[in-house]
Amino acid sequence: MGGHGGLNILPQKRWNMYNFENREKVKRYEEEAAREEAIRQQKASREETQFKLEKLCEAAKSKRRRVENGSGPVQEAGDGGLVMVQNKRR
Hints:
- The protein is rod-shaped, with a radius of gyration of 33 Å.
- Strands 1-2 form a two-stranded antiparallel ribbon.
- Helix content is 54%, strand content 7%.
- The chain has one domain.
- The protein has one helix at residues 20-68, and strands at 74-76, 82-84.
- It contains one helix and two strands; from the N terminus they run αββ.
- By secondary structure, it is mainly alpha-helical.
């Protein structure tokens, strides 16, 4: 009974992982997942860029307002921050 003969019914099973159709199905699923991941990464990159742009615009508006209000010239610090310079009159 247990030799190399017998019934070979594996190719007929729909869950057979060596079946050509099943391999193609897995390939399609993997390609679809890769496309979705690429779209997700592009969206995250766009959102991050938009966030950084908004922060830069807010900083520029704030800097412009301080200069227009006459609170003194604004200098940029070496670490990327802003430093207010007071005009001292004697």
